Amino acid sequence: MKKWLFIGCMWLAGTAVWAQGIMQSHERPLDFSARVGFNSAFPLIHTFTLDGADLPNRRVHYRVGYLAAVTLSVNFNRFFIQPSASWYRTNAEVRFSLPDATGSSDALSDANLEEEVNSLEVPVLVGYHIVREAPYGLNVKFGPKAIYQYRSRYGFGGAASGFRFEGNNIPYAFNFVAAVGVTIGRLFLDFSYEFGLHNIRSTFTWTEPGAATPHTLLYERRTNLLSFSLGLNL
Question: What is the pTM (predicted TM-score) of this model?
Fold first, then answer.
């Protein structure tokens, strides 16, 4: 009994010391931090056509994605510059209707496209501390983000299950980021929204049995993104 009581007291003391360290705010010229979180992608569809004809009944369904990042903050009194290196996985689904083999719009079949994108991203944000009363803080930050999409996966279901991914026009993208950060000691929460600055185009093909030429599906969109992350200043 005394042994377990001693272990319990030591655990409580260690937790108290850890919590005290977490609540201490940083006031250094350079800060390093790490964070993990979730995101939700919002594809804004510009073109979604089959052989040049617009596909009807498009419905975008949002899916949860993930992120991890390491960040360097360069502090100048209340202003700071914050470059990061991050990994993102985003997911989305588009449901739509396909015409039958005759091309009649009176006979439509349900279909869906599931999209998963893995990317390496480098935002460079400029921020300002609105509130900095230790151990609490509130800041806003804005800036561009460069994105390299190193792997894209697409899956078709329903009437579109025969389509095959051909490729994206470019693996690179650029977004503009607006974010709000809340700090409590060394812990912080970041809420950000990203605006896609240009369209990404993906091409898919499907060859019907006995057909001489394949059908071509063109999917062109800008992707906006809402993110939430929890981090720790190291």
Answer: 0.82
